[in-house]
Amino acid sequence: YWNGQGVEKNLEVSAKYFIDAAEMGNPACMDHVGWLYMKGKGVEKDFDKAFMWYQRSAACGSDYARVQLGECYLKGYGTDQDIERGLELVKEGAEAENDFAMFLYGECLERGIGIEEDFGQALEFYKKAAEKGGEEGLYRMALLYSEGHGVEKNLEKAKEYCMQVREDLTYSDTCVFEEDWKQEMEMLLHSFRQAE
Q1: Which residue from 157, 79, 165, 183 is spatially nearest to 129, judged by alpha carbons?
Q2: What is residue 120's DSSP assignment?
């Protein structure tokens, strides 16, 4: 039902099956259910339920869930904001080379969230996240190249990064960007599509 293979695509039915499997103790499904609630895919968006499922999955040993909990703590999604705990979890994930954790840690460094601002170090984490294929890292590098921020301006390179996420140059709705970067990214993608 998730992909519509052999049946009509139906995110609500798919979500029900994922929830059933998660309730039976499947950590991979717990991860996915947390993501469903975080994004509002097939279920109503609910940060409290996302946080709860990430906690359950992390207790089963999921590194993915630990990184997601880090984001929840950093941003106060489904829990009280705890930047110190969030940064700790995200840094652990970045050291383990999780692409999303590397992006989040880079964002903390760039924006000075719980840590001293250090754009040079942030750029290194974004590059590593992009090299691992993480869409947030790819999109952040695209924005930096399009603006010439910390790197030499290069629109062709920016477009290459974007195409690694989606060849049709549309915005990936699974990307986790703050609203300001999301808007900038959508405008950049639009300009690339218009130029074709």
Answers
A1: 165
A2: H
